[in-house]
Structure formats: C-alpha cells, structure tokens
Design the sequence.
C-alpha cells in the first residue's frame, strides 16, 4: 500500500526531471503538425531581395558619410589645421575608410553640424579648427589601433 502512495511522487519526479533535461528547442521540433496546417517548407523571414536592398542602402549611406567627412577635411581651415599639427593628409584619407559605419556616421554628423554652424556664424575659425582637430584625432586613433 505504501508503494502505491509513492508511485505518483516518483512519476512526478521522473516527469519533471525529463522536462528539465530535454531542451525546449527539441520539444518544439517533436510536436506534430496539425491536420489543418500542413508543414510548410522552411522559409526565410527576410527575402534575398530585402537583404540585397539593405546592403545597397548601407553601402550608399557609408559612401555618403565618407564624402561628408572628406569634404569637411578638405576645407582650407582643415588643411591649415593638418599642416599646423603635422598630420599627413594621406594617412587621414586612408583612416577614413578604416572607420566603422557607426564611427563614420557620427563623424559625418558632427562635420555636417560644424560646417552649418560655421556658415551661420555660430562658431569661428578657432572653434572650427578645434573640431577638425578632434575629428583628426579620432581618425588617427582608429588607424593606429587597426
């Protein structure tokens, strides 16, 4: 009689041990498809066309950011700042392409803002030179780290 009382406890312990021992991903695969929805062949969530479009968009955005930073660093103030700091413009140009997409986007946004502020008279030549020097330092740090 005591064995009969222990049986549900033992059965529960075995069931719980099996539940924790089998990964949930295997249990999901083991489920049978219902009769109403026959199993479809595996399909991708993102189509190849969407992937291609995303890659093209990312490439275009990167190229646009490179052009913004290069334009910013080709200004008279930037060239003079590089000469004063004894920074090689070729090394800087090479370093721009070494930047990650995120770093490039941040520098392009800062360069764009600095140019607009300078054009609006919000900052002068000295402040613009300091911003340019900061951009150059970031680029050279990335080049030296690579």
Sequence:
């Amino acid at each position: 009689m005591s064995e009969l009382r222990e049986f549900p406890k033992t059965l529960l312990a075995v069931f719980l041990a099996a539940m924790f021992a089998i990964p949930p991903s295997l249990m999901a695969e083991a489920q049978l498809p219902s009769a109403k929805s026959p199993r479809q062949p595996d399909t991708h969530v993102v189509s190849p066309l969407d992937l291609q479009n995303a890659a093209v968009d990312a490439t275009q955005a990167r190229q646009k950011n490179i052009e913004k930073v290069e334009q910013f660093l080709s200004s008279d103030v930037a060239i003079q700042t590089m000469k004063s700091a004894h920074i090689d413009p070729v090394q800087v140009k090479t370093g721009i392409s070494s930047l990650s997409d995120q770093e490039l986007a941040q520098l392009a946004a800062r360069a764009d803002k600095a140019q607009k502020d300078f054009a609006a008279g919000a900052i002068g030549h000295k402040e613009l030179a300091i911003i340019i020097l900061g951009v150059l330092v970031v680029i050279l740090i990335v080049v030296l780290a690579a």
